[in-house]
Amino acid sequence: MTLSAAGKKSVLITGGCGFIGCNLADRLASRGDKVVVLDNLVRAGVRENAQWLKSRHADRISVVVGDVRDPITVIDVVREAGAVLHLAAQVAVTSSLQTPIDDFEINARGTLNVLEAVRLHNPAVPVVFASTNKVYGRLIDNSQIRRDGTRHVPRDASLAHGIAEDTPLDLYSPYGCSKGTADQYVRDYARIFGLNTAVLRMSCIYGPRQFGNEDQGWIAHFLLSALRGEKLTIYGDGLQVRDALYVADAADAWIGVLDNIERVSGRIFNLGGGLSNSISLIELIAMIQQISGKRPAFNFAEWRPGDQPWYVSDISSLGAAIGWTPATPLADGLQHLQGWLEGRFGRVAGGQEALA
What we know:
Layout: E1 10-14, H1 19-30, E2 35-39, H2 46-57, E3 61-65, H3 71-79, E4 81-86, H4 93-98, H5 100-121, E5 127-132, E6 145-148, E7 151-154, H6 173-193, E8 197-202, E9 204-206, H7 218-228, E10 232-235, E11 241-246, H8 247-259, H9 261-264, E12 268-271, E13 278-280, H10 281-292, E14 298-301, H11 316-322, H12 330-345
Parallel strand pairs: 1-2, 1-4, 2-3, 4-5, 5-8, 8-12, 9-11, 10-14
Antiparallel strand pairs: 6-7, 11-13
């Protein structure tokens, strides 16, 4: 049953014109929910995503231009919401190194603004928060990994199923600190104030409407670089491993948590592709060549601060809680994303495209 059908108010999605946010908005509106999107429309591609949402759903989706750093704006949209999906964020480690205060204000203070608006003005509303695997820090140093063909693997057999939610936090980089702060605030507002909140620590999400740049959306960035014939920079040795999750499967998980919020309130879950959808950077380049017939050119550079040589999510807790599991194999998801990128950027001239 949709929130609207249940007689409730609209679903508020902060950052709802971003990659994951607009896919969530589309899915919710398609099932009959009314959606209010709050976005400052600053990042590349978000205005295009807003136009796409309005073209598909017309009055079922409302776009409010605003910033989570403005508490008055946040109060206005939260007061009328039936649910809050909080995805508005500064999303790049590199940007957090350049402007750590802005990173904190958006990720930590912005999240606190949302929580306070809920606590004071709409305390019954469920809140689901977009956290990140970066809250676990680097996790493994070079002495704790070994090479296995074209990827790193951990020496510790206890990590065979991935990183679980009870792994101690080791906030690394300003981005890790700001998102980790928000992550813990969201959890604590459930424990201390009784709000219905849940946290999703996301791994690498990819799929259509991801415009892919070097700092965020690396899978789309790799595919787009191959399409444009541009050279990639691989930071580290290319053997680092991540688990990847197709955005439609991520949307299923978000909605599953929202629809079961009474049962999962106060809990934190990893959200990723798991072991079956893990891949190294070098392996991804080889897969892109198989899919597109184009092998991206690349060079190597030094590791960046906080880069994890190996990270794979243990997603068993989320599966047990809501009956969710990834449905899209990595090879299929990459083909879907490749098709969308070719349709969107096929008209690129000279390797450049200005985004609205």
